[in-house]
Amino acid sequence: MTKKIATAGNDGDKIRSDCFVSLELKESGGLHIEVQSKVKTLFGDDILAVCKKALAFFGIENAEFFIDDKGALPWVIMARIEAAIKQLIESEKEFLPEMIEENTTSSQKSQFRFSRLYLPGNTPSMMLNAGIHKPNGLILDLEDSVAPAKKPEARFLVRNALRALNMYGAERMVRINQGDMGIAELAYIIPQNVNLILVPKCESAGYIKQLDIEIEKIKSAHKITMPTWYMPIIESALGVEKAFEIATASKNVVALAIGLEDFTADLGTRRTKEATESFYARTRLVNACKAAGIQPIDSVFSDVGDMDGLKENVKVSKSLGFEGMGCIHPRQIPVIHESFAPEADEIDKAKKIVHAFMEASEKGLGVVSLGSKMIDPPVVKRAETTIHLALRLGLLDENWREEFNA
Amino acid sequence: MEKSDNLIKNAAGRMVPKTINGVEQVPYMGVGKFIPTGKKHAPSIKSYANYPADGNKQVESLKDALIKAGLKDGMTISTHHHFRNGDLLANLIFDIAHELGVKNLRWFPSASFPCHEHLIPYLEDGTISHIEGSMNGALGKFCSYGKMSRTAILRSHGGRYQAVQDGDVQIDIAVIGAACADSFGNANGLYGQSASGLLGFALADSEYAEKVIVVTDNMVPFPCVPWQIQGNHVDFTVKMDKVGLSEKIVSGTTEITKSPDRLLLAEMTAKFCEVTGIIRDGFSFQSGAGGTSLAVGEYFKQIMKAKGIKARFARGGSNKYLVQMLEEGLVEYILDGQTFDLEGVRSMAENPGHVWTSPFTSYNYHGKGNFASLVDVAILGATEIDINFNANVVTHSDGLLLHGIGGWQNCLFSKTVIIPVPLFRDRIPIIIDEVTTLCGPGELIDVIVTERGIAINPLRKDLIEAAKGSGLPIKTIQELKAEADRICGVPQKQKFGEEVVAAIKWVDGTVIDSVRRVLE
User: Fold this and answer.
1) Nearest to B159 by CA among B417, B506, B504
2) A5-88 to CATH, choices 3.30.870, 3.30.230, 1.20.120, 3.40.109
3) Between residues 350 and 409 of chain B, which touch chain A (CB distance below 8 Å)?
4) Nearest Cβ partner for B492 among A38, A43, A133
């Protein structure tokens, strides 16, 4: 190996909760560690200890090591040091932070995915409090939000986040890169209990099948039994045409999302507020998902300051059949949750219909009627879905029928 | 002269000096425990026969006024922070003192700002001996590293008034910058290019200082009304081209934070006030002008609108959001302590419901009551809070003095005090075992709102009861601390020098804590 100096992490005046490290391997002279930190009075000793431990872990005995810390948490520091070391030394060993208990839970195929918040995979400051905003899912993004040169070090950060970052009950998601790079990233995340993988710019069922194979290999090597779900993102005209194939490529596909920025670029048109240019794609995607029995998920709404616009957008999205939406700002989360949840009059109506249906079947009647109106089976089915949703969201008591019998 | 020595343990268990700069001190004895007797300090008798009959007290320049006021070694010079970071006067006063070769001045500002970094050479060359007032930024660091030749004293706005009344600080010359004045000395902060809203912080100085100078860049013919400062207290008036940089005096517009984490804190704080019934018809509140506090006000507004609730009064720091509430009828009165933006200045000038107040009415320990204790809820900040709900506002956990006390200690007397803070900043936990510097005793602090949970002081059984079943994440403060430690790690014990570089006064003038030298 010829390279002797490596750096990792971020520096600059605006950087917070992160650190920058540089490492130069030497032939002799022992270890020289310099710690600079804005939290030195409180954690200087601890930071020095972590640095020493990391260098020892990889058997480094002669080196100049420098860390400029801006209040990074230990698992961030560990990721940065390992990223620097592995540019200079080939090693299978991983310098892992402790896996917190909260990150050992699995997720269900059909759980709510109303909101999922994107977090740039190389920016720790944005990760720390993300979970407290209670999104259904948190996406640690290795793809578009990470600069190409930073992608290798982001893998260590995302891996450590999956172990040490409390996401407060959100489904733990990672967006991998496209193609072979994405496959290579699996080794960093599958052993860390990731719940769901977002597959960007997906255009073929083949890639999904390849994921199945690669993930199975890693899982059996690490004896992992927890499910790993996929949410392919459809971002091209070809992807839209192949939506159903992709949706049914694996039992692990639980949702398809649409990415409208790339899609409209692929069409050679521009994304508008009215979104007529993507109407076909969106309805096509919803249709494919419903046919495959999975969740259709809408694109992000990019104007983070426009909450009224977001609300309108979610309404349209819901009316087209979508069951969730991406978020790029935490304040979008409550608006999205509220808008996807059934409204009070919707629940009221559904209660009457479902009650009438249940009463009819209890009495052995073949025909359901509400007042003087006959009710068709699909109407009952839709009402049941609403009731089911309301129950799961805690908007309705499970003994809701009692009020009819009182 | 000894800076400070003979440490003694006060009622809060903190080691504080018995004497500071040669003056004997009373250690903190507990809330409401120290009741001094005797007479208030008074300035020497004046007679109008000694002042110009035509009322014109205007002199050539500030230098002229300072010389006529008898500026000499060892005097106490007071200034005020109405012009905030746009203040030009304090720097100019000490430029003049330096030019005249005057030494050993005690600077007694109601607050200092980053613009006063200019004064550091004067602290080094002995023009200024020390500061009694808030210290921010560079001045705070200068003091923290033990470079000031005497011990600094930090007081609250109310404590400053008390110190003047008790004669703890006898002001030789008060220089009062005003947006508008007449040559007799009547002055206000309402009109002109340097409009700051009000001049309340200069009130005690105008009444108690030996000599009073009013400086303005907007001299109007007698009478200047309203006279927030009365000309009858004033010795000299000065007209200058500019007393402050208007763009730095008040921000053109204050803005609510965009940080999702702070918005969440604000939302949780407002929700807490809603479910515990603090927000009810006729209630009163105080909320500052920081990004989070402004957001709390906005969430209050939403709740009040939705429920048809009106507040009787709000204590300012006024700003455009509070003014909107006043104008929409959600708040009947703003009792304003300082004005943070141009909308606040406009409203104070136009609206009889927007009332200017001073530390005398609001905070003063020697008043016969104070407005702060009439307020239902005050939303405040802190740099650190300990498991006994004690809080620090002046130092960071590295020990550096970076903030003044302002009205913070005084506001603790509100019926409910809520402090919304993040559980940790970067890696620095905010909830810890023991605060680095004690500024406010925990018995006066009721609720800590963090993004990871809300802790209610066990003394407030009523609030604990009221918050039950609210769905809010109520936790003990120990649980919050444990969570911070789990995320950040347990911090090592900081090491400070022996030397006391600053003393923190409680609202009654007793010494509640000392600040040790920070090791470089």
Assistant:
1) B506
2) 3.30.230
3) 397-399
4) A43
